[in-house]
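Input/output pair, single chain:
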Amino acid sequence: RLVGPNVPAGLVGTAFDEGGVSITAHRIPYEEYAAGVAPREAAPEGAQRAAFCFNAGIWGYPSWEPAVAVLLRQSDRVPVVVTAYSPVESDADEEVVDRVARALLAEGLRKDASDEAWYAWASCGNPWASRVPRPSSVRDEVLHSSQYCFALRWPSV
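Output:
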């Protein structure tokens, strides 16, 4: 499923199904989708196998924080991969994840987790990043889509 407030309107209501892979598009914040606010197509329980946040800029949009909280809560079942254009952006995304995870710990969501328990791997270069350069506002900086990534997987107790 492609889920988010910026999913192109032209994709909503369309579906792709090939070789056992089904993709549908939903123009709604992820936390609302996960809570069942939007109508969903029939799917077997646990059909979601992973969540990907491609070049999401989590650091730059406070509206991501509720979705990050939902993603962390389900990351024992659904691994989450976050990509970024640069190491600086990836580190900033991790800072937001850390802040949200610590808030969840303070709420008593988990009592057994250390500060870093929510990472399957920390920010690193992505060997499958795009090779197509993108313009940057920083002089002499060359960006590539999904150049850096990290993954969340909060182990179940």
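The first helix runs from residue 30 to 34. Residues 3 and 33 are 7 Å apart (CA to CA).
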